[in-house]
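Morning run. Coffee first, then this:
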Amino acid sequence: MRVEVINTGTEILLGNVVNSHLAFFAKELFPIGLRIERQVTVPDGTAIRDALSEALERAEVIFVTGGLGPTTDDVTREISAELLDLPMHESAEVLQAIAERFARRGIVMTERVKRQAQVPVGATVLANACGTAPGLYLKTDALHLFLLPGPPRELKPMFRESVLPILKTIAPQKPTFACRSFRVVGIGESNVEALVGEEILAIEGIELGYCARPGEVDVRCIGTPEMLDRAERIVLSKLGDQIAALDESSLEETVVRELTARGKKLAVAESCTGGFVAHRITNVPGASAVFLAGFVTYADEAKTRELGVPADLIAQHGAVSAEVARAMAAGAMEKSDAHFALSTTGIAGPDGGTEAKPVGTVFIALASRGNDVQVQQHKFPTDRENFKWLASQAALDLLRRSIAW
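And here it is:
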């Protein structure tokens, strides 16, 4: 079945609101055997008519988001009814639900709000537990049209509670395909493709794709379980320990999961990343079971005071050096009594670089009980934000590879 999405809202096209609906729909639909083939975004108002007219000629399932509110630019209901040649009527059920919601909140309901009770004849009303504008389901012999509210806090529960049950009655009962992702770190997209692409594509019928982000690449395979098992064997044999996860888990989620499984504790000491490594770790639910402490020692004096890094070591080698990174990691482990301690020290730029240590240089160290401190040097010549991300990515990957000790 061809599935299309029409997102409405001038605020999206002005950049004031990030459109997250497509990702939500795609993830909810895939497990029931449906995939989105086209998505468009149009401003509020009559532009919806052109977009919906085109979609009606191609698609069997259409989702339209937004334009169901009470104001003059909310015209999704009216345009949909017009294109399907359906008269509108006021739904007493919807009007009562709106009135009760306003009464609970102690707000007077205006005449304009009552517009949301206008429903095309024959439409199924989709209750909105989080707002006043109901969703609508319009069905013909060859079409399933869903009109849904724009705010995610209203759309998501409505979709899961009302839309998915309908879709499951019309979607393939047993999807013939599945998706398997492999998160790869420390290697670029073109190198990943060179290692696995040709062999995977030799599997007849499989769909292969890549999604590259700073410091990592997702290898995505779609096919039957047998195809995916063959692809997984290729990926594992060619990429080995560069695979951080056999799903879409983030690097920090993998680290927290592995530390938890082994009962190990972590501390971090950060200079150039300014606490970003700790931020990523503590964003993971359950991080409190493994994360003990984070030291943000941006100034040289703080490295000495908080971590015990000798001042003469900094004077001799510079704050950005393998020696200082090693001392920072050792100091963090001693102060926190953690099993592992990561440290970062570098030059984020745009100033401060030298010929020997240009902007983008970072030293990362990992201390672990019973082992020598490991130190890595990297160069990430980019803007400050990306530098911090890439440095944290390298630090977490160093930890991930070492946890099994």
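DSSP finds 14 helices and 17 strands in the chain. Good start to the day.
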